[in-house]
Amino acid sequence: MKLYRPRSIGLKQALVFVALFGAHGVAMADAERFEADLRALFSEGGTLSIGDVSSAMLRSRLTAEDIVFEAEEGERLLIDRYIVSGDYDAPTDVTLEGLRIEDSLTELTLMSVERIVLGEPSQAVFPLHDDALTPEQVRLGSLAIDGIVIELASELAEEIFFDTPLSSGHGRMTIDKLRGESLSHEAIGMLEISGMAGVFDELEELGSGSFTLRSLRLEGLTGIDKEGEEKLASLVLRDLAVESPELVARLALFDLDGNFDDGKGGVRLEGLHMDLARMIELAPEDERTQLRMVSNVLTGGSGELRLDAALLGSWQEKDEHSVLISDSQIDIHDALSLLLDINLPLLLPHEVTPSDAFSNMEWLEDATLLGGNIHLSLANQGLFSRLATLGAAMEGVTEALYVEQVRTQAQGFGMMFGPEIQAILVGLVDLLEGSAQHLDVRVTLPAQSTVTSYMSDPLGVPGKLSVKVETR
């Protein structure tokens, strides 16, 4: 008969055992800290209950379940799970699942969120007390929120949408996704909202209606901690639709390039469509006749106003000077098209960069203009003929007589302000008459001048410039 003799524990196994035991102790300590921080978070003005706090030792994860906070003001906060992953003092991410804010008296859900993920937060639990953290201590590497529903008729919505029209409205808003990167008290690296929709009532001037938004993305927002120093590098809005008694409109794209460090930027607007006919139907009856007159002039009777625009600028550095270039276009379909090209060589004031120049145009007053040219092209696509018809009807005269009256007035203004202004005004009358469909105005600046000199004598500006006007 052999007696069983236990094997001796090797050094490797012993180290593993000690490590697991130590990790278990650390995990238990972190779990206690986690629960203490949660209770401190809701320590003022209400009661808190936590169903369970547990730790997953091997996966470095702490989980608090069934958190319920009853505020003295009558609101109830519920969180199904609050999960901290990674080192408790420097988490890889913090996840909140099943978050709801309810009115405990009416049982109405004021706000619900399916899931919130805070990537690389500066803390596992952010205290709510104003004096608990300085703004510099609140940072997020990334942010992901899914399934947001907000009731607009609540004090909570007023706080969320403070100083916006939504703060005073009634209705409901839903957001499929919200994503963010590099978030702090002073800057936002990126923030994107996708799948937004809402119904509203009593929303200031818009009244009652609905809206949808495919996406809104902003990048490079800085200076938000200092009033008046905010800068936005980029904002792109896609597929916005609004329907209300005051506004029935769609917008395919709004693209703002506000980062002028690369020497260019501007705004693009694509696919703006306003259903004027529908808006007139929803307007008070005593206002409809006048609104139809305006609609007919702008749309030729279709009742649908469509507009595209691009207001773009760029900056070029030459050997001894800079060149400011603007290439802009506004197209109101079936009404008019406007093109504006600007090419201005100039000397900047000392230490003014192209980025400074675009962000604050006050420097232009001190710049020296080295000639340059401006080209304005206006193409009539039906607007001017409709203006002539409307003007004649309001005056109770024939269109021919109305045009002659306007021409006489244009010539009179020309005698007051000079032949350059007279040529432009008479060209506009040619568009009104229908004898021309295009008006081109080309302005050439003198070899050296300043904006200040033009501002000090505005009536004398046309005489200082070379102006050429053509109609065809």
Automatic annotation (TrEMBL):
* Span of the signal peptide: 1-29
Q: Which UniProt keywords apply?
A: Signal
Q: What's the protein here called?
A: DUF945 domain-containing protein
